[in-house]
Amino acid sequence: MLRCFQADLHIHTCLSPCGDLLMSPKRVVEEAARKKLDIIAISDHNSAENVAAAVRVGQDNDVTVIPAMEVTTVEEAHFIAFFDRPDPVLDLQNLIYENLPGKNDPTVFGEQIVVNELDEVEGYNDRLLIGACGLSINKLIEEIHKRGGLIVAAHVDRQAFSIISQLGFIPPDIELDGLEISARIPPGKAVELFPEFKKYPLITSSDAHYLQDIGKVRTSFMLQEPTFGELRQAFANTNSRRLFVEEV
Ligand SMILES: [Zn+2]
Ligand SMILES: [Zn+2]
Question: How many other C-beta atoms are found inside a 10 Å radius of the C-beta of residue 109?
């Protein structure tokens, strides 16, 4: 039997330079559980080093944590990659790191902290995670699909770091699995402004950098169980699985 699951598929941790220092994997998952979210995705900038810890905390809190990453392409557009387990996102991370120039300056961009499931600091990432990697949009799509993942263009309505802000349109020949509307605009309004969005499955996510923002907007999924395999079917709109956002 299908039932409705609440998801927020774009959440940062303290590994992102712009993420609040309180955003440890444990606290993020516990906050999601408190807010009755069934599924969340941990999507740090160009890195997934806090994903496995969050997945483990999720197992103890009845929250499905989807391993993810928010990648900045060479065009300076943001995309979220989703996977069924940590291994493929860590494999993608290796490729991103090979193509990510520069070192982080914590005094300018913020600390990038790797934290385990017990809330212990394991280390500091010194790569320029806030920067753009050398992969093009087309190459990134190919690399994510090759690893069995899904790719969603992030905050497409935004005037910065979105496929629309960088290209002006969505190339019709690219194989995106969905689009994400930011929390700044009701999804219905976004579609009114950009009718081309209608051709894609639309999600809306908090893009939370602070605990209080987790779950402030959500996407609903009709699934049998809260798993990546079921999410994939909802994005493809098959087997009666589907996704929808509340219209305001
Ligand atoms: Zn972004
Ligand atoms: Zn983000």
Answer: 16
Q: Whole-angstrom Cα distance, residue 141 to residue 150?
A: 9
| Model pTM score | 0.97
Q: Which ligand is located closest to the Cα atom of residue 166?
A: 1
Ligand nearest to the CA of 19: 2
Neighbours of ion ligand 2 (CB under 5 A): 70, 207
Smallest-distance ligand from the CA of 157: 1
The pLDDT tens digits for 140-164 are: 999 999 999 999 999 999 999 999 9
The full set of domains in the chain, from first to last, is: 3-12+29-100+133-244 (3.20.20.140)
Q: Describe the crossing of helices 51-61 and 25-34 by its angle, rounded to 10 degrees.
A: 40
Give me ligand 2 centre to Cα 132, in Å. Answer: 13
